[in-house]
Amino acid sequence: MSLAIVHSRARSGIQAPVVEVEVHLSNGLPGLAIVGLPETAVKESKDRVRSALINSHFEFPSRRITINLAPADLPKEGGRFDLPIALGILAASGQIPVQALAHVECVGELALSGELRPISACLPAVIASHAEGRQLILPADNSHEAALYSQASPLMASNLLEVCAHLHGRSQLKACTSKPAEPIPTSQDLADVRGQPQARRALEIAAAGQHNLLFYGPPGTGKTLLASRLNTLLPPLSDDEALDIALIHSVAGAPHRWRERPFRHPHHTASAPALVGGGSQPKPGEISLAHRGVLFLDELPEFSRPVLEVLREPLENGEVRIARAQAQAVFPCQFQLVAAMNPCPCGYFGDGKGRCRCTPDQVRRYRMRLSGPLLDRIDMHVPVRGIHADQLRGESDEETSADVLTRVIKARQRALARQGKTNQALTAKELDQLCPLTENQHAYLSAAMDKLGLSIRAWHRIIRVARTLADLAHCEQLQDAHLAEAVSYRRLDRPMA
Closest by alpha carbon to 347, among 368, 362, 326, 332? Predict the structure, then answer.
């Protein structure tokens, strides 16, 4: 038979659409042509495949070889199509049985010797092939990543000869049996933070309700230390959540430990594409790599304003859409934003010691680097003051992360049992149903809204924070104290004198 079809998988965002590799041998001058929107790396596969077949002691047909990668309008990139192209040539020339390819899919890059090299973003292909009901053949070096999806058992091969022997029925490829590594316990703990009761309280509230948080205060007061401890207060990941995180990091080619919440800390010189993702073939950015984890932006006003503005829609929608000339992609980005900033250019505004030499105009211009719409999307604005040196003496008697985590888990369980989601994810309609305000509470919040110049979005975010405070206090109804504390976390919204 001079025609063979091999199923493979392309890469499109976090999806792995099926690609049919059609190989046809015809009479004419010997040659090999690849059609179907291949990129440079795919076009170069013809030379790798030819050498791999010859060095594996197969016959390379001296005929006209046409290879079509269907669908033709889907861009194909990388070396993942080497193995299906090689198998298609062997099947079309009668060197392996065509019927053996009907229920398998394969991806893999070939070395000139016929060895199989690992590919990037294999996890989406494992999930998609399992959903399709086909057995996936992968390079053996991808076994660690493939093992993250426990429902599938892809076959692992080290070279082309092993794959062909399996298709002939002479031997069986081994299924992936390796297990994902257990997360390494962190040495970080909230007990490392001395003093700062208000900031510690804010971290607990943020962890319980999945709220965004901004720390502001003079240099050296522990803003970065506090932010780095938020991950230790977040509940353990479920299997589905861990798989979501692994999927994004697989596509990005970024290393990540299984069952560990991401903590991304980009430098303030990062560009907008670095944060949201991009490229001719779109890849995830920092906000997607922080999915189900924490995105920490230190020295927030030092980020360029256009870079910060790209965070506005992802903070609301929980996903980012990237459109490029050749491809489009949608990446999830349900992250918690934690930011830190100084109150003025020198950092000592309002420290009570008179060290600040900034003029009111300089302070105003510094804060104007942050737009109102962005600050509006940050639920809690928390001041961080310096502590006295005496508080650093002796053993720490502060609460540990484990102590706080127990309360956080109970508060989240109350929210999930009530509404099936965290308080941060509640819509305006759900807030009206689940968190009705009394007349006095409504009047109080209206007065605070007028005095602080808050928006309707801030109104809803205050109620979400108050709902989390009530969950932490084991209260079904919002109390006046919960609402007052939630309003106190909007201090940075006050206009400067």
Answer: 362
Distance CA 320, CA 135 (A): 32
Task: Answer for the pair 377, 335: CB distance below 8 angstroms, yes or no.
Answer: no
Distances (CA, A) of 238 to 245, 258, 334, 472: 11, 11, 15, 22
Q: What is the pLDDT of residue 441?
A: 95
The Cα 199–Cα 182 span in angstroms is: 31
Single pTM value for the model: 0.90
Residue 146 token pair: 């493939």
Write the pLDDT tens digit of every residue in 381-432.
999 987 766 566 666 668 899 999 999 999 999 999 999 999 999 999 999 9
CA-angle at 411, arms to 337 and 473, nearest 5°: 110
Distance linking the first and last C-alpha atoms of the chain = 83
User: How does strand 31-35 pair with strand 64-70?
Assistant: parallel
Domains of the chain: 3-175 (3.30.230.10), 190-421 (3.40.50.300)
Other beta carbons within 10 Å of 351: 17
* Residue 377 · residue 370 · CB < 8 Å: no
Q: Which two tokens stand for residue 142?
A: 């991808």
